[in-house]
Amino acid sequence: MLVRVALVEGKHEDSFEGSQCSLVARRVVVDCLRTRQRERPPTGAERPLIAEPGGCVVVNPTGNSGLGKAGNGDTLTGLIVGFVAQAAALKIAIFETLVAAMYIAGLAGDIADEKYGKRIMTASDVRDSFHEAFTAVMDEQM
Q1: Which of 76, 95, 118, 131 has the least C-beta neighbours within 10 A?
Q2: For residues 17 and 1, is the Cβ–Cβ distance under 8 A?
């Protein structure tokens, strides 16, 4: 069974069941739950939800409003297609693959925001930040 998440007041990391979700999906859930316990996000700072028909819902803690500009949807689509192609070849579950792609895309957006700011950053800046996003995730796992 995949991770099941309930983001309601008073729930903690044990709000999810199952142990078969990927490391990235688990990290996304735990980061989100920890953030929710510290402070409620201000209005307009909602997080993207990634859900699958079996009831698994993951909240992506990465990304920012600068990703709402022209070209970023295309950039995300390209990243997802690349991840899914690799997942199919390696027989990795698609849901966890989508969670990982959304996390990396959001993290690249956060890195571009740090470099250029939300108002100035472009889809090309986000794409150029993919390498740093991958490196950051890999460094955390080691």
Answers
A1: 131
A2: yes
Q: What is the pTM of this model?
A: 0.69
Separation CA 93–CA 2 (nearest Å): 11
118 secondary structure, DSSP code: T
Residue 123: half-sphere exposure toward Cβ, Cα within 13 Å: 12
Q: What is the pLDDT of residues 64-74, one digit of tens each?
A: 999 999 999 99
Whole-angstrom CA distances from 91 to 39, 68, 84 are 38, 32, 10
Higher pLDDT, 51 or 27: 51
Q: What is the CATH number of domain 13-141?
A: 3.40.1190.20
Residue 133 has pLDDT above 80, yes or no: yes
